[in-house]
Design a protein that fits this description.
The protein has 159 residues and is an all-alpha fold. It contains 5 helices and no strands.
């Protein structure tokens, strides 16, 4: 009776590639730069959500609701909980860039007369900070993707 060689799941190419991607993502998210970006983005998103009550324009309900929703969405996108793979992190960082731009223009774009000096200053400053953090996260994710491709192709850049 002949026995066929049994392949070990630990050495399966898909398992090895998945482990390499996870290890790369883990190394990148534990760097001080990545942690600082993630922390800054979380604080920025939480501030944006609470800014109508902190800055004192909660009476302008359309902008208050807008800031609450956009702030929570930004904090969730940038906190890293959903994007441990670089492919998703890069896309989510670009979505967060769009939220930063929306935060900047929202005092003029939402319904009602909400473009007061307080709302404009608050949203422009928070929007610029959100945009810069999202761009930094996108750049870090893209740099990690290049490292992952180089590791996958044996040190050679992907064609």
């Amino acid at each position: 009776m002949t026995t066929s060689p049994r392949s070990d799941m630990e050495t399966h190419p898909d398992i090895v590639a998945m482990r390499n991607r996870h290890d790369l993502a883990e190394r990148a998210t534990t760097t001080p730069r990545a942690q600082a970006i993630e922390t800054g983005a979380l604080i920025t998103g939480l501030y944006l959500a609470a800014s109508p009550w902190i800055a004192g324009f909660n009476g302008l309900s359309t902008l208050a609701v807008n800031n609450l929703i956009v702030g929570i969405a930004y904090a969730l996108l940038m906190s890293g909980g959903f994007g441990r793979a670089y492919e998703r992190t890069h896309s989510m960082a670009w979505a967060a860039c769009a939220l930063g731009v929306w935060t900047i223009i929202s005092p003029w774009a939402v319904a009602g007369d909400v473009s007061t000096a307080r709302t404009i200053v608050n949203n422009v400053i928070v929007g610029v900070i959100a945009l810069v953090l999202a761009l930094a996260a996108s750049a870090g994710a893209k740099q990690g993707e290049r490292r992952r491709q180089a590791a996958t192709f044996g040190g050679r850049p992907a064609a």
